Amino acid sequence: MTDLISLADIQHAAARIRRVARVTPLIDVSLSLPLAASASRLLLKCENLQPAGAFKIRGACNMLACLGDAERARGVVTYSSGNHGQSLALAAHLIGTRAVIVMPTTAPGVKVRGARRYGAEVLFEGTTTLERKSRAEAEAASRGLTMVPPFDHPWIIEGQGTAGLEILEQCPDVRTVYVPVGGGGLISGIATAVKGLNPEVRVVGVEPAGAPKMSTSLAAGHPVTLPKTSSVADGLLAVRPGEITFAHVQARVDDVVTVEDTAILHALRWLFAEARLVVEPSGAITVAAALAGAGHPAAGPMVAVLSGGNVEPDAFARYLTAP
Asked: How many domains is the chain built from?
């Protein structure tokens, strides 16, 4: 049986990462809601404003802080669709150790450039999580590097969960929290923090309809590997949830819903027009779910976590003008 992390674990992580990870703002956009949703109060947790542009800096900083000196000195390696890679590159740069990032061949250029900007070596392997994970493991073995997984590790989950602590501090009366679901690290941490502070708050995971790895796994009762995934939300295309993250979601998340790409792009445009925020599709997915009232939100304030803002300018322009 998988041991679950605790609220205290996340509180300790918050102390470790506070010099690097920002306490991101919680913005109330209720006045800008469409008329059909105007009875609700919606707030945005702006993780797109983190260093390196995504929530991933929280987990990366926490894990590097927890490693031993010898493990850090050897250098670190990870596999990432982009945001974790950028964040680990930055965290490694700040402590003066090398980082090797294995990204998919389809990784957006903005995320590749971001990792390289912080001095990381970027390698490319396949298009799925499992392909780049295998390459990263081979690099770790051949070079003696320390693996820093993108989501399926207690220290990563603890770091990501610090966003949940902030949500409850910034909005104590929150009733529903929407969280993007890729490999499951962010929702595992946020659900642990939120339920630890107030078990009555609903936590709803949101994943693309073309990448329903967590909802499929929950229905099966165990982690399932999808044959393929496809979505405009490139940060949420894992083909399989983690073993550890699945256990957390199964135990602590109230619902996991799926959203079509058309709704994701509508939410992205709405965020730009109404909140003046640049958010990548993987981050906008929660607003799509909130605007649709997915996951049976409880009466009262809703928080949508905007997980990242790393998007190619040309692609963003296309998203804004898409029909």
From this structure: 2
Residues 47, 180: one domain?
A: yes
Q: What is the DSSP string of 237-304?
A: --SS--HHHHHHHHHH-SEEEEE-HHHHHHHHHHHHHHH-----HHHHHHHHHHHHTTT-PPSS-EEE
Distance between CA atoms of residues 219 and 202, nearest Å: 19
Whether residue 307 contacts residue 281, with contact meaning beta carbons closer than 8 Å, is answered with no
CATH number, domain with residue 19: 3.40.50.1100
Q: Give the residue from 235, 233, 282, 308 showing the smallest Cα distance to 47.
A: 308
Query: Per the domain annotation, does 74 fall within a domain?
Result: yes
Residue 306, token pair as written in the block? 């905007």
Question: H/E element holding 206?
Answer: strand 202-208
185 is written with which tokens?
Answer: 């690290």
Element at 213 (helix H, strand E): helix 213-220
Tell me the pairing of strands 255-259 and 202-208: parallel
Residue with tokens 């109330």: 28
Q: pLDDT of 54-66, one tens digit each?
A: 999 999 999 999 9
Predicted confidence (pLDDT) per residue in 14-57, tens digit: 999 999 999 999 999 998 887 555 567 999 999 999 999 999 99
Token duo for residue 91: 């965290």
The pTM (predicted TM-score) of the whole model is 0.95
CA distance 218 to 209: 15
Three-state secondary structure call for residue 151: coil
Residue 247's closest CA among 278, 214, 276, 271? 214
Tell me which of 56, 133, 195, 213 is the catalytic residue. Answer: 56
Residue 1: inside a domain: no
Does 231 participate in catalysis according to the annotation? no
Cα Rg for the chain, rounded, in angstroms?
Answer: 18
Catalytic residue flag (residue 81):
yes
The residue annotated as part of the active site, out of 40, 80, 81, 282, is: 81
